[in-house]
Structure to design on (246 residues):
């Protein structure tokens, strides 16, 4: 049986976004900086920020925990919305546990949202939520170095202590419950947002120069996705009633 990950006692309740007209939300904006900002996690945080900005409205406030010495963020962030998270050189996970209360306490948010790895320690007076994208490092440790396994494993177990855990899929939610011992009532499935303005359906369907049916894959080709091993093999199989065509 997995050990149950319980949040520390004495935590404040997480307010509903619609219940407070002047809610101050602080999100972990580190995934927006550097190469991560152009990857899936960075796009997730960018979409999350756009959605939260609309929900809090003009009377609310959305702030970003960022490294002031790091790379520029992948989205435009007003200077007054930046909460600096300055730490000495060294492991971000360790410094986040030491300095997290100072960073977050200085912003005095109503809610903090940890969005990826190395969630900082949160003051007891601040309710917080954490997003868990997947448990791949725990399920396939041979694919990662010892250092990566330590950071990923510790980050996931710290995120599992949040009063509210957000999983990006029902599959991940079940793994969070079974592997990390998080009670199901503390887990919510919230699929990643989609940038409708960027990926809306074009007026004309299809790809120029390609006739007939096609399959468009926008992700990576690492073995865990099974694109080459399973998906492409399935695409090449003849369909029933298609006269031998794939």
């Amino acid at each position: 049986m997995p050990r149950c990950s319980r949040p520390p006692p004495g935590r404040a309740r997480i307010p509903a976004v619609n219940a407070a007209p002047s809610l101050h939300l602080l999100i972990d904006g580190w995934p927006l900086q550097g190469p991560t900002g152009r990857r899936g996690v960075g796009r997730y945080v960018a979409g999350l920020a756009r959605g939260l900005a609309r929900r809090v409205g003009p009377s609310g406030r959305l702030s970003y925990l960022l490294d002031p010495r790091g790379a520029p963020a992948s989205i435009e962030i007003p200077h007054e919305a930046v909460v600096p998270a300055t730490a000495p050189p060294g492991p971000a996970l360790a410094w986040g546990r030491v300095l997290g209360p100072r960073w977050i306490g200085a912003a005095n948010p109503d809610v903090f949202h940890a969005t990826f790895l190395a969630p900082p320690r949160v003051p007891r007076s601040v309710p917080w939520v954490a997003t868990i994208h997947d448990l791949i490092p725990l399920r396939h440790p041979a694919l990662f170095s010892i250092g990566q396994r330590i950071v990923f494993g510790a980050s996931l177990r710290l995120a599992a202590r949040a009063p509210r855990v957000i999983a990006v899929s029902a599959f991940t939610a079940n793994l969070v419950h079974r592997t990390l011992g998080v009670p199901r009532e503390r887990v919510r499935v919230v699929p990643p947002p989609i940038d409708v303005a960027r990926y809306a359906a074009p007026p004309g369907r299809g790809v120029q120069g390609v006739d007939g049916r096609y399959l468009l894959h926008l992700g990576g080709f690492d073995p865990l996705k099974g694109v080459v091993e399973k998906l492409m093999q399935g695409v090449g199989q003849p369909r029933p009633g298609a006269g031998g065509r794939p």
